Fold:
Amino acid sequence: MSRDEWPLPPHYDSGRTHEIWRPDSGDLAKAAADWRRMHDLQPTAAAAQRIALLLVDVQNSFCLPGFELFVGGSTGNGAAEDNRRLCEFIYRNIGLITHISATMDTHQPIQIFHPCFWIDQQGRHPAPFTLITTEDVERQRWAVDPGVSAALEMEPDYLHRYVLHYTHTLEEGGKYDLTIWPYHVLLGSLGHALVPSVQEAIFFHSLARQAQPTFHVKGDNPLTEHYSVLGPEVTTGPEGEQMGARNESFVSRLLGFDVVVVAGQAKSHCLAWTIDDLLEEIELRNRRLAEKIYLLEDCTSPVVVPGVMDYADVADAAFRRFEQCGMKIVRSTEPMHRWPGIDL
Structure:
């Protein structure tokens, strides 16, 4: 064990990272205090180097087999394997990580990317993973369900103009076509919660290092996708009305750290677009800031639905572009002091 690695604590069980269970906060708090004393862990406020870990949507819906939108990746068990490595990364680097931020994708039943929002000419809802384009809306292959207008208290004519504008804006901006997803991360559901093993690791880090984690909710606007925590896919409506804005304060806080490590799901969607938006902000401020961003390539997986869609190549291409812009691609199993550009 090198000078900047810590052992895995006794409470951690690598065999449970793919399961649902309830961490015991009381027992865990005592264990964290004992761990702090045993390893002389200092409060993060006293740290000379500030290292943030950004966890993107490490929630049950995406990360546990059997849940609504499990990110199996190319192996079929991707997110579950990622979470084991992620937990162990947190514990092995508990004396180095000074802050953990977790994003929480947060949806309600009636949203533009859920089946109930749309109907075809026979009144049927689209199947999950259906793609809807501007042409589909123009030719009335898909239309907004009239019941949605009443539920959202919006005029049907406005919603028709809105979805035309929305799909066109996605296409013009080089975004993915509007994808109909299975109902997932519904607010108040089990799927919305963080994976228990990851929540346990965040809580343990918080008390062992006396550091308050932060949580960032995104995705609750019914009229837009919100892959990136930094902003929605479409920010204005057909009449120029504001649909959402870039989270400038969060960008500034992230870029204020000496090192920012990023992991989570999915490599092809929410994680990729978060990094893409962060890179866009970096290029507006100072391109050298990209050098402080480290991407844990073995703690993220792409969306792959066998026989339906496979975003593995798209995700890999995005990571190559991020690396070309100065970000570092690293592995969680390699000690941080060996990462390029890290001076610990």
Summary: The chain has a mean pLDDT of 96. The first helix runs from residue 25 to 38.
